Amino acid sequence: QVQLVESGGGLVQPGESRRLSCAASGSIISINAMGWYRQAPGKERELVAAITSRGSTDYGSSVKGRFTISRDYAKNTVYLQMNSLKPEDTAVYYCNGNIRTWNGNYDYWGQGTQVTVSS
Known about the structure:
Helix content: under 10%
Distance between the termini: 40 Å
Number of strands: 11
Shape: elongated
Oligomer: single chain
Radius of gyration: 14 Å
């Protein structure tokens, strides 16, 4: 059993910054990749940022230059530093991990954390 627990969401004003955290725990052998996705009301879930076990990163076009993903390998934790937040960044942010367990490689999701950007 693997759990992903997000934290750090909340209400922020436009232009401000926020950092999200996601900690993975449970029967983990190794983590192949971790990432953040978001889903706004009435829209499909979209990739925000992802990072591989080697540290390669990928970003959605709407957040490039504003958001930064990073990992703490020792803590099995991934972070999303969000700067210059805009109202259109408002969404539920979900953590994703492609994780190797004794039963194989699987994708796991966190429960989501709400980020609201509003004045």
